[in-house]
Amino acid sequence: MDHKILQTARELIDEVGYPALTVDQVAARAGVGKAAIYRRYASKAEMAFAATMHEQESPPLADTGSLHGDLLALVRTFHVRMDTPAARHLAPALMSELAVNPELDTRFQDTFLAEEQTAFAEIIERATARGELAGPVDPAMAHLLLLGSLAAALYILNLPVDDAMVTDLATAAAAGITALADRHHSDSEPPSRADRAVPTGLS
Predict the structure, then answer these.
(1) Is the pLDDT of residue 192 over 60?
(2) First-to-final CA distance of the chain
(3) Computed from CA positions of residues 33, 38, 40, 41, in that sequence, does the dihedral angle turn out positive or negative?
(4) What is the rounded CA–CA span in Å between residue 143 and residue 177?
(5) Is 175 helix (H, G, I), strand (E, B) or coil?
(6) CA 80 centroid distance within chain
(7) Whole-angstrom Cα distance, residue 26 to residue 12?
(8) pTM above 0.70, yes or no
(9) What CATH number does the domain located at 53-187 have?
(10) Do 169 and 149 touch, CB atoms closer than 8 A?
């Protein structure tokens, strides 16, 4: 039933657009009751988001051999998903609901965002193992630097995001992640003997 609901929602979004989409339409075409939909999704926006983005199977995470290459491959995949007309319509509606619905926000954090951050954790682990990074970086921060910037460009600033901008975002994120790794590594190092020396001439 889950697949049928989301497949029907995708079909209707393609046909009528997200603003004109209703839960009644989805229920009627899918042959299910509205209650069955609302048991799964708190709102039209959550259902549409799940249908257009969350249910899509992510391709295997690319291993390009570099931090920048891995980030660029990842952000290009998400750009394709996030820059559709349906996504541009429904993302602001979903963000509004997340702000006032703690249960929905928790579900969103524990599913979609957790999946994305797992991908960043793997990319960071690879880069650290290759010696590109001085140490680990919080995947949530890496997620914010790259996909947070992409979401802001698309849904808040309404910019025409092309591949050149996507490449720039990956470059900026790689530089930021590297700088964070360097700072955390520096902060974790024990002070040198010179730093630990007690100044002379003090009583």
Answers:
(1) no
(2) 79
(3) positive
(4) 10
(5) helix
(6) 13
(7) 7
(8) yes
(9) 1.10.357.10
(10) yes
